[in-house]
Design brief:
alpha/beta, eight-stranded parallel sheet, single chain
């Protein structure tokens, strides 16, 4: 698995009572695959992993695998404490997932030795390869990543922390075959810096509701056409809007999908949906994004 292409993190639809809407989830995943994503990361942060029961999680992973139909890999999130992380990992394995994204352990602030032993135990507990996810209470020293990378089940490292100096040291310490991912919110804004480190893979929340725009930006950044990319990311106020409410990194994405015509329902507790004012601003950003894409398509030299 090389994970070529833009990475798609689908939302997990539900009704007003927070009951899983699996048919809408299938449609959402199918639309993303047909739009041209490079991989589906199901039931991860954007997919509200911490709010899902094991039953709903297993159903979503299996559905994502069916909808992807081998066209792209399906990566499932896993997390909590070690025992539960292994339990979710095995459910993902049973559902046909290609790999796991290991989210930070629940609640505790662990030392480097504890982090290493936690992720090694997950890797020992499943046949699926694992991508480490650095963020929040899971910030790794380069030596820890190098040690974990020696485990045959650990294949990648996703950075949601944003310290490029630390990222450089991690890349220098780990084996060359390790896969790296930019996982910062609105990753398009930081991708030039990650690209300079050789990190070409990134996830795009915008892909959930403006896939054409996200893919055009991805191609421009991949090809070094930063002038085109800078035109396309004039929707950068999304990054500022995400900082105006707790949990907006998830709830704004879900709201964006709803605004584009797919009723994926509200965010699950303890998150809250955006305020009416913020929804209006999001709608304006989506309109601006669609206009940017139209401008690009009319350009004599499209990306």
């Amino acid at each position: 698995m090389t994970f070529d292409g833009l990475l798609f993190f689908p939302v997990t639809p539900c009704d007003e009572e927070e009951r899983l809407d699996l048919e809408v989830f299938r449609r959402h995943v199918r639309q993303g695959v047909e739009a041209g994503c490079g991989a589906v990361f199901a039931c991860c942060g954007t997919g509200e992993f911490p709010a899902l029961s094991l039953r709903d999680y297993a159903a979503c992973v299996a559905a994502a695998v069916e909808e992807a139909a081998g066209r792209v890999p399906v990566v499932a999130g896993t997390g909590y404490g070690t025992a539960m992380a292994v339990e979710f990992a095995r459910a993902a394995e049973d559902g046909g997932a290609s790999a796991l994204l290991a989210l930070p352990p629940y609640l505790v602030q662990a030392g480097q030795d504890g982090l290493r032993r936690h992720y090694e135990a997950i890797a020992d507990g499943t046949r699926l390869p694992i991508i480490l996810y650095q963020r929040d209470n899971a910030v790794f020293e380069p030596e820890t990543v190098a040690a974990l990378a020696r485990h045959p089940g650990v294949i990648g490292f996703k950075d949601g922390y944003g310290d490029l100096g630390l990222m450089r040291r991690i890349i220098e310490a780990a084996p060359p075959e390790m896969l790296y991912f930019n996982g910062l919110p609105t990753a398009e804004l930081s991708q030039p810096g990650y690209r300079d480190l050789g990190v070409v893979r990134y996830s795009s929340a915008v892909f959930c509701f403006l896939p054409g725009l996200a893919l055009a930006c991805y191609r421009a950044l991949r090809d070094g056409r930063d002038d085109v990319a800078n035109r396309l990311i004039e929707y950068r106020p999304l990054a500022g809007l995400r900082g105006e409410g707790p949990g907006y990194a998830v709830s704004l994405v879900k709201a964006g999908v709803r605004l584009r015509g797919l009723d994926v329902g509200p965010v699950r507790r303890p998150l809250s949906d955006p305020s009416p004012e913020h929804l209006d601003r999001l709608a304006a950003l989506i309109d601006r994004g669609l206009a940017l894409l139209e401008e690009l398509e009319r350009s004599p030299d499209p990306a």
